[in-house]
Amino acid sequence: MEFAFTEEQVMIADTARGFFAENATSARTRAAMAADGIDRELWSSFCTELGLAGVGVPEALGGAGLGMVEFALIAEAAGAQVAALPLMGNARAAHALVAGGTPEQQARWLPALVSGESIATSASSQDASFSNGKLSGTFRFAPHGGSADLLLLTAGEQCLVVEASAPGVAVTAHVTMDQTRPLATIVLNNAPAETVADHAAANRALDVTGLICLAAEALGGAQAALDRTVAYSKERVQFGRAIGSFQAYKHRLADMMIEIEQARSAVYWAACAIDEGSDEAQIALHSAKAFCADTFHMCAGNMIQLHGGIGFTWEHDAHLFFKRARSILSMLGDSQWHREQIAALVLDQAA
After folding, report:
1. Which of 113, 131, 289, 318 has its CA 20 to 30 Å from the CA of residue 231?
2. Are the CB atoms for 256 and 302 separated by under 8 Å?
3. What is the CB neighbour count within 10 angstroms for residue 137?
4. What pLDDT digit, counting tens, does each position of 274-290 carry?
5. Coil, helix or strand for 228?
6. String of b and e for 215-227 (b: at least 16 CB within 10 Å)?
7. pLDDT, tens only, 161-206
8. CATH code for residues 201-350
9. Cα 253 to chain centroid, rounded
10. Are 134 and 148 in contact (CB under 8 A)?
């Protein structure tokens, strides 16, 4: 597979990087962490001024009509600033409704998701029960679930749409390590729910969008961790010379760079494979999530250590990157699980 960004994709990447670098500041992120984990002003600007919240939604349904490569570029830019946004939740819900929702569900929810007026989350449960339009069960680890208006829930093989304000819905927000993406537990007791038209397509879109988003965010975060550490290595002087001139320090930076470049290839291989409907798409998705999550975790840990004492303080942003990295590491399956899926797919193809 040959791959190169188009001029339009380069423009989108530059625009997104500039937007997040200017607006997703540390002060605003910390303020959002002290509230519900969402920078409301940033989210409104991202949706209305930048107009990229509906990047993967067809133009006929109010979106930008672009693909997973463009979505990955935006997620990478957001991840580089550890932006406190419900990007993943809204994108997963919107793409799932595009893929499998009824026309009525699409007309009702997509404009609100694209404009940022509504916030969505998704979660799954194998023990939930759905009968006669009523859903009961416990759904855990819902990102920004405490702020969500729309719940897109997977119960076994079924994908269901539930309004957070509906009777029988109880949402408990939790204090989590990554306060820029707080999790919640959703408990339903005979809550009214609607089924989507195509369960398989909706669930597939949930998985694809979530994995691409996390992998791209991890790539952006890893690159930012390296860039900030390199900048610090040029400023900090020890024994009369910049610490970046010491060989051991340079080796750690080189290790980070090598892993990041491989992670970059993994993200855009997966995104391109999805857009092109490649047979490699499933292996590429698992590879991207596992490799990028591990890379970000390694780079964020090195960022703290290579900054020395200042890197361990609450005042420094290194801990924001490490907490996001740790969260991504376990979200939507840990790296070992994804590698096991790759092994199973490879062995099946060989057989």
Report:
1. 289
2. yes
3. 20
4. 999 999 999 999 999 99
5. helix
6. bbbbbbbbbbbbe
7. 999 999 999 999 999 999 999 999 999 999 999 999 999 999 999 9
8. 1.20.140.10
9. 25
10. no
